[in-house]
């Protein structure tokens, strides 16, 4: 903390007060949570095992309210879920609130979703079923009707110092020269004039979301204490929202600044003192090269977050579908370092947010750093998934005001993969098209399950739910295309899982089998080694997980092409040191097929190969 705040007046007093508050909250943890803390201290790899599986959803869209979520625990257990991320459920701003990410209170539950008592009941029930609850913790900003912002508007100078405010446009205009724009259509610019303050307020996301001023040590202390209060409610993981934006520096993008990392490291230290069973997850949607820092550095003895979203892997897998070649995924994997101890990637296919293609600019530029090539490739992917005349995909552009820019893409995974109906039996005429769509869905999830990290199922993907365009009829939502991928949970599909004529049932059964197989494969734990394999095919991705010098390894192969591919098994196997000088036989654990001299990969298929008898 001294590195960030040491020059502030009364630093020592401030630090002592913070330690006292942290100590008090640590002593307030319930006996159940203290027991959980102790279990995890003795087993720090608890969240790295191959049976760790996440699920992400909105409370209201999944089950109505927190009590409804409790009733859905059997569904989560049936899937194999061990980690449930409920998107924002604390009190949000009245009116527009960015899907709940404009937080008006850290101590109250959103109207209609329940109460703090309901949350305590839910966390207890989840804990009994070995499911950890993850909640969003919005670090970068709060709503303009949060008590801190209201006090600032009413003239309280203490709370005005919680925010970045400017009397005129001089500094905002200087900052804007190097800042990007998150929502260029809905919320252009990064500063908003507030008539009550008669000042410009820093608002990176929407005008009603005021960025917090972390150069003020009181802001950090308040946020740290809020986090511990939430942890004492039984929340076992925090998705730290917008971590890349925490520190502002003139002349930079105000992302990934050194001080932002120091603040996250301090939060990790506080958690390890007061609630060591709790995980921190960095929501840093940044280039591959900037990702590792959010997990800390084992060599330097630095611990930061336990988990970080692997946004580059997600985006590159969609590019691979669009281009029917895997070189970008291979480049991302090659650039992905080994994980520090007690750390994991969060692997996802889709989420509540858009697919941001720009995280891949470095990989798409190739070895020559060709920025124009990168732009061309990423624009092609964006067009592929947002223009139905260009492909099978049914998505939309997201927040693009510049026709020359690479816009984001929104849409449910099944719709982006070409599935038209999820809960109905497919028309025989389009049965082949439907089959290919289902294969694409499973291909994307197979990579997420195999890569190494915690795979995350986004709400409804287990039933191949498709886009929900009803948001277009709601004026409060129609300006935000991300509502396209926020459907209500398909209870009808859930009730008819026995009907295998339905696409929803087929996807559920096959995805469940992938998950079941993963649970039995130690080589697929988060922290086992990964090595790319040469497949001699631009369309086939290959890597090996686990110890390549022993029998404890697994070969992953996937075909991102609409055409079948055949590989020479010997060329694949001889890249595995353990198998090079031995007579070995591999079996595909997904099909049970024994592998011979050739490895056949039908369109959009995958194989998980392990040594026979291992």
Automatic annotation (TrEMBL):
Database matches in InterPro entries: GH, GH13_cat_dom, Glyco_hydro_b, O16G_dom_2
SUPFAM superfamilies: (Trans)glycosidases
Positions of the Glycosyl hydrolase family 13 catalytic domain: 56-518
Pfam families from the UniProt entry: Alpha-amylase
Domain of life of the source: Bacteria
Record protein name field: Amylosucrase
Species whose genome carries this gene: Undibacterium macrobrachii
């Amino acid at each position: 903390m001294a590195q960030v705040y040491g020059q502030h007046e009364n630093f020592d007093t401030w630090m002592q007060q913070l330690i006292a508050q942290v100590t008090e909250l640590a002593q307030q943890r319930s006996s159940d949570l203290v027991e959980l803390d102790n279990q995890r201290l003795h087993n720090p790899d608890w969240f790295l095992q191959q049976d760790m599986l996440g699920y992400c959803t909105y409370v209201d869209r999944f089950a109505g309210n927190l009590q409804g979520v409790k009733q859905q625990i059997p569904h989560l257990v049936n899937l194999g879920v061990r980690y449930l991320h409920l998107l924002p459920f604390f009190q949000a701003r009245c009116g527009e609130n960015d899907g709940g990410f404009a937080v008006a209170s850290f101590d109250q539950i959103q109207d209609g979703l329940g109460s703090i008592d309901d949350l305590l009941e839910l966390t207890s029930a989840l804990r009994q079923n070995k499911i950890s609850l993850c909640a969003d913790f919005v670090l970068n900003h709060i709503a303009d009707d949060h008590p801190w912002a209201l006090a600032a508007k009413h003239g309280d100078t203490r709370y005005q110092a919680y925010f970045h405010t400017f009397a005129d446009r001089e500094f905002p205009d200087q900052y804007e020269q190097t800042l990007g724009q998150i929502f260029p259509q809905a919320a252009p610019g990064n500063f908003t004039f507030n008539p009550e303050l008669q000042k410009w307020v820093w608002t990176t996301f929407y005008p009603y979301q005021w960025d917090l001023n972390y150069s003020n040590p009181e802001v950090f202390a308040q946020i740290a204490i809020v986090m511990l209060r939430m942890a004492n409610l039984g929340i076992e993981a925090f998705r730290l929202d917008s971590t890349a934006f925490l520190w502002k520096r003139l002349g930079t993008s105000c992302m990934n600044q050194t001080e932002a990392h120091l603040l996250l490291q301090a939060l990790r230290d506080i958690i390890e003192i007061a609630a060591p069973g709790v995980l921190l997850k960095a929501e840093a949607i940044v280039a591959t090269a900037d990702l590792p820092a959010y997990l800390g550095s084992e060599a330097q003895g630095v611990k930061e977050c336990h988990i970080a979203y692997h946004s580059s892997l997600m985006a590159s897998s969609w590019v691979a579908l669009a281009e029917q070649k895997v070189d970008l995924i291979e480049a991302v994997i090659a650039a992905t370092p080994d994980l520090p101890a007690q750390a994991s990637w969060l692997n996802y296919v889709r989420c509540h947010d858009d697919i941001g293609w720009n995280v891949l600019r470095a990989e798409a530029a190739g070895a020559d750093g060709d920025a124009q090539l990168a732009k061309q490739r990423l624009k092609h992917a964006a067009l592929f998934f947002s223009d139905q005349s260009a492909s099978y995909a049914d998505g939309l552009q997201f927040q693009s005001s510049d026709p020359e820019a690479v816009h984001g893409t929104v849409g449910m995974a099944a719709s982006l993969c070409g599935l038209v109906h999820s809960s109905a039996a497919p028309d025989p005429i389009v049965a082949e098209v439907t089959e290919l769509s289902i294969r694409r869905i499973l291909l994307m999830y197979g990579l997420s399950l195999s890569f190494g990290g915690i795979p995350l199922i986004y709400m409804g993907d287990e039933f191949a739910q498709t886009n929900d365009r009803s948001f277009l009829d709601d004026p409060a939502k129609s300006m935000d295309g991300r509502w396209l991928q926020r459907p209500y949970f398909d209870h009808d599909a859930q009730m008819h899982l026995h009907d295998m004529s339905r696409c929803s049932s087929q996807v559920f059964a096959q995805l469940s089998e992938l998950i079941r197989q993963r649970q039995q494969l130690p080589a697929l734990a988060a922290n086992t080694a990964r090595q790319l394999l040469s497949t001699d095919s631009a369309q086939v991705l290959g890597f090996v997980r686990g110890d390549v010098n022993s029998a404890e390894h697994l070969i992953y192969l996937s075909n991102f092409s609409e055409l079948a591919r055949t590989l020479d098994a010997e060329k694949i196997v001889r890249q595995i040191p353990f198998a090079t000088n031995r007579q070995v036989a591999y079996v595909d654990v997904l099909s049970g097929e024994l592998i011979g001299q050739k490895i056949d990969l039908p369109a959009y298929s995958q194989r998980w190969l392990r040594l026979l008898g291992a």
